[in-house]
Specification:
Blueprint: H1 3-25, E1 28-33, H2 40-47, H3 50-54, E2 59-64, H4 68-76, E3 82-85, H5 87-95, E4 100-109, E5 112-115, E6 132-134, H6 140-153, E7 163-165, H7 168-177, E8 183-186, H8 190-195, E9 201-205, H9 206-210, E10 217-222, H10 223-228, H11 230-249, H12 251-262, H13 266-273, E11 278-280, H14 287-296
Parallel strand pairs: 1-2, 1-3, 6-7, 6-8
Antiparallel strand pairs: 3-10, 4-10, 4-11, 5-8, 5-9
Helix pairs in contact: 2-11, 11-12, 12-13
């Protein structure tokens, strides 16, 4: 190539550079949260701008979903790149062909089944006419209830026909009104708020049902996004890790900052953050136990043996 031909290429190369730069600057990542303090590392990183700090030039678009099914449908429709959910709905989606992968642990949390009906002190006391609110069939609350039902009643599916799908806020309102449901399997801060009433009692906790500790919320991204934007995956991981570390290390500051978002008094939120009912970050725990139980009880079709479930 002679010198004149090289000079002719310069405008085209400059234009290409500008276009690539604009593409980077205008790149959009769409993610969805759900309700509750278990998502606080994500919420903190979002509100403090840490996602943008970790991935300069990226425009983040956020939505809030009532359950993992809504996230799954949005990813299938190419409206979302990822979201945050419990392990069981992630496994169900993966088992049924969803091309997504878990990339980070967000939180462990104390989960609990609360009832407002008198005379009920364990799941063995639950009558057939009592309805139980939880985020959706296949949610982590549902699978924990199934685990407990198998241990105490010998039937994992004992309550499967008594479930009512409600978001955590709607489930709390329904429980306290005593109309549509009289039991609610939920998480912080709704669990603590429900137990403030003298009319309610805790009849099952998540760790007892599971038999140990487990990760409550994980970050899940579509495989297409992971393959095409590996640098963004690492940026998202760094942002939620910053959120988790901030909550763990500076609960006073976090409570003051996040109280308006959660519509809680600062001292009330601080009390929950210091209560030991929540821990943030770490590694994903409990995936294999959930998978084995769900395979054996028919909640999965056993299609996950050769799948990579957690991104290294």
């Amino acid at each position: 190539m002679n010198l004149n031909e090289r000079f002719k290429l310069i405008p085209a190369l400059l234009l290409l550079t500008v276009l690539l730069s604009c593409t980077r600057e205008n790149k959009t990542i769409s993610l969805t949260e759900q309700y509750g303090l278990a998502y606080a590392p994500v919420t903190a990183a979002r509100l403090r701008g840490w996602f943008e700090e970790e991935l300069p030039g990226v425009d983040f678009k956020w939505q809030t979903a009532g359950n993992a099914a809504a996230i799954r449908e949005a990813i299938l429709a190419n409206r979302l790149d990822g979201g945050f959910m419990g392990i069981p709905p992630y496994l169900i989606g993966k088992d049924r062909g969803m091309k997504w992968t878990a990339v980070a642990a967000i939180a462990e949390a104390e989960l609990g089944l609360v009832t407002i009906r008198s005379g009920i002190h364990s799941i063995a006391d639950i009558p057939e006419d009592l309805r139980i609110a939880l985020p959706q069939p296949g949610s982590i609350q549902h699978i924990l209830l199934a685990m407990a039902a198998e241990k105490e009643l010998g039937d994992a599916a004992a309550f499967d026909n008594r479930l009512v799908t409600l978001s955590h806020p709607d489930g709390m309102n329904a429980l306290m009104s005593g109309t549509e449901v009289e039991a609610h399997f939920t998480s912080p801060p709704y669990l603590q708020k429900e137990l403030e009433s003298s009319d309610t009692r805790l009849i099952l906790d998540g760790q007892t049902a599971f038999g140990g500790e487990f990760t409550f919320i994980i970050a899940v991204l579509s495989d297409a996004f992971i393959e095409s934007h590996p640098e963004s995956v690492e940026g998202i991981r760094r942002a939620v890790r910053r959120g988790a570390e901030w909550l763990n290390d500076y609960p006073d500051e976090a409570a003051e900052f996040l109280a308006p978002h959660y519509r809680m008094e600062e001292m009330e939120l601080k009390k929950v953050l210091l209560s030991g009912t929540l821990s943030y970050g770490g590694d994903i725990a409990g995936m294999d136990v959930f998978r084995e139980f769900m395979n054996e009880r028919g909640y999965l079709n056993d299609n996950l043996q050769d799948h990579e479930l957690i991104l290294p």
